Amino acid sequence: MTPESNQDSDEIRRRYEEYIVAEDLDGVYRNYGDATPEGHGGIWVAYEIDRQAWDVWITTPAEEYGLADFESPGSQVVEAGEIYWDDVVADDGSWSDTFAHIPDTYHSGHGSPLGAVVDRRLTGFVAHESRKWSDPYPYRDQPVEEDSYEAILDRFGIEPREE
Fold first, then answer.
1. In the chain, what's the furthest Cα-to-Cα distance?
2. Nearest to 8 by CA among 106, 94, 99, 80
3. CA-to-CA distance for 32 and 29, rounded, in angstroms?
4. Domains: count for the chain
5. In terms of residue numbers, what domain contains 113?
6. Cβ neighbours of residue 63 closer than 8 Å, sequence gap 6 or more
7. Computed over its alpha carbons, how large is the radius of gyration of the chain?
8. pTM for the full model?
9. Helices (H), the chain
10. Separation CA 20–CA 14 (nearest Å)
């Protein structure tokens, strides 16, 4: 084992947050879903350093739920979630119990959160596991109807980063 592999959760989090700051990503939403989220759904994720948590918004076209008769990017089922650092990384720096399956589930799943941080894949793993933490939002008012997909993102304060 290298000394680097013995890092605890706080050390790994500091390293991850250094990357977030260096890339100017604190609180910035990026899509980890389909490349064309207006027609196929998106998984919008932003890490908030102050809260040590990821905010997640998931959009799915309403027709996939049988809630619309035609394809309309302005008609989406929206789910919101919040995943804290401690939900992902255990105190000893290993995957938490709820993320321990990552190495076996994903083609390039990392054996440790540190490896995922080094390879810039941690947020992607969080995004693809996020449905376990998400609920429809607003709960009783689905699908969300707006004039466009961009208007739905605006409604929830999601400002995608221009890549």
1. 57
2. 94
3. 10
4. 1
5. 3-155
6. 69, 70, 71, 72, 75
7. 17
8. 0.90
9. 9-22, 37-40, 85-88, 102-105, 113-118, 122-129, 149-155
10. 10
Continuous segment of H or E residues that includes residue 71: none
Contacts of 93 (CB under 8 A, 6+ apart): 6, 7, 8, 9, 11, 12, 112, 113, 114
Do 113 and 93 contact (CB within 8 A), yes or no?
yes
Residue 161 falls inside a structural domain: no
Note down pLDDT in tens along the chain; length 163 residues: 344 457 999 999 999 999 999 999 999 999 999 888 988 899 999 999 999 999 999 999 999 988 887 778 899 999 999 999 999 999 999 999 999 999 999 888 889 999 999 999 999 999 999 999 999 888 888 999 999 999 999 999 998 877 6
In a domain, 162, yes or no: no
Question: Is residue 12 within 8 Å of 93, Cβ to Cβ?
Answer: yes
Q: Residue 157 carries which DSSP code?
A: T
Q: What is the pLDDT of residue 138?
A: 83
Query: Is residue 160 one of the residues assigned to a domain?
Result: no
Q: Where are the beta strands (DSSP E) in 32-132?
A: 42-48, 53-61, 75-84
